[in-house]
Amino acid sequence: MSRSVLVTGGNRGIGLAVARVFAEAGDRVALTYRTGKPKAGLGCLAVTCDVTDAAQVERAYKEVEAAHGPVEVLVANAGITRDQLLLRMAEKDFSEVLDTNVTGVFRVVKRAAEEMVEARRGRIVLISSVVGLLGAAGQTNYAASKAGLIGFARSVARELGSRGVTCNVVAPGFVETDMTRALNDKQRAALLGKVPLGRSAQAQEVAAAVRFLASEDAAYITGAVLPVDGGLGMGH
Prior knowledge:
Helix 1 (13-24) crosses helix 8 (203-213). The protein has helices at 13-24, 54-68, 91-119, 131-134, 140-160, 178-181, 185-192, 203-213, and strands at residues 4-7, 28-33, 45-48, 73-76, 122-127, 165-172, 225-228. The protein is built from eight helices and seven strands; from the N terminus they run βαββαβαβααβαααβ. 44% of the residues lie in helices and 15% in strands. A seven-stranded parallel beta sheet has the order 3-2-1-4-5-6-7, sandwiched between helices. Pathway: Lipid metabolism; fatty acid biosynthesis.
């Protein structure tokens, strides 16, 4: 059955792969982007939205609902990095990452949950990171934000479970994206050397995990953290 799916930060990388896998399955997919509108041909509704702006979030939802109906599957993927060592990190860089990666997720999840609770069904999937479990030098802000999503998701799962709404987390590891492709050979080798499977993930592999958690096969899974990291975060 075709569902109304919304993917935030869906114009590239993991978000674009997630949007594509739902669209290929026949769902009515909308994606948000702040900059860099995705290329035509994906078959998705592209909506501008900065998740740090509550008014833009509301406007985006109204546009999606008018085109596709109330959101039944939400994938909260939009996020930013502002990497720097702790002693050199500006407070602005810390607060901006938390505002986008945590408070932005709060805004989009709260808005989707209103309709899901009324319909007594819904799927929410948050995109975290293995960094939120392991930590990473130079990413105190990003790690804090991605760890925070786990507590947030599990609280939402407890609040909304009785209404037929699930909330889960996917925690990717080293994924082939524009950002990771910019690393030099030495940096890539150092990172991949810590991965038991010895390779990076493709964005499509993360998307497959997201789609599973949004499927009927995962109807009895909520509050879970599903790693897609090649074993990098084992034990965390």
